[in-house]
Design goal:
336 residues, alpha/beta, seven-stranded parallel beta sheet, three-stranded mixed beta sheet, 36% helix, 16% strand
Length: 336
Amino acid sequence: MPTSLVTGGAGFIGSHVADELIRLGHKVVVLDDLSGGFEDNVPPGAVFVKGSILDNDLIERLFERHRFAYVYHLAAYAAEGLSHFIKRFNYQNNLIGSVNLINASVNHGVKGFVFTSSIAVYGAGQSPMSEEMVPVPEDSYGIAKCAVESELKISHEMFGLDYVIFRPHNVYGERQNIGDRYRNVVGIFMNQLMKNEPMTIFGDGEQQRAFTHISDVAPIIASCVDVPAARNQLFNVGADVPHTVNYLAEIVSGAMAKRCNVVHLEPRNEVKIAFSDHSRAENVFGSREKVSLQAGIEKMTAWVRQHGSRESNVFEEIEIPQNLPPSWASVARVRV
């Protein structure tokens, strides 16, 4: 029975990956600081450790004690738009924390490092995005993810650390933190509707994304270490069909049995059209029928109805207030 570390395993995607690993027969240790996750997301049978990937001493103790065969690194602060204004926080959590894990993995002989990157590495004007494209990230979050990808590549070349990189996109579903006001538009819409508030959309709502249900992502990530052809490769993974944010609002309001009441805010700096090609993943992991947007939203709606709305989290350490969207600036505290 291999022992695997899942960072961010109390969060959304991480908890589903931990579930799948337990199902596959792994002993799972979850490391999460609960900044965006919840302890009740951690699956039964997993060992939960509350702590940060920035705590290098803690990481060293965990690797020494558990002798991990695999590391699944899903811990991140994944707010692309906000990352422009929290650069130091972004790079500490999404880059330096990742390097701590890579160092420990090399030093302790980990057999495989699985990393969830993002299609944010591609930047604009490259849809459909394919793995052969040269990354040109347009936000600090994408830059950090791109840097970790490069670190894994050179760590393999220098030290023999095997890895698999996934670039998921616009993932939604059960256990998502719907109280997060900065990311995950599906959850934001559902939380607003449950509070009888209008759904807020930056810009005209014609941004296009391929919204991906969690069940089309987590099983592939968990099982990749057992697929030899996946070793030292990177893969786009997610839904194939892009939809506008306006259309998403209609689908979500319909599933929630609420009127589609939308308020358009000032546009923010973001990629207008972003969806990816998944041919490489299908060639390696096989093709499978994916969850439609309607079916996925209905599944998430059923879960949200059981768990209720959450209070929105306010990010209180804005480093650069200039050009911060007004809806964020009204509740922000500037840190210098």
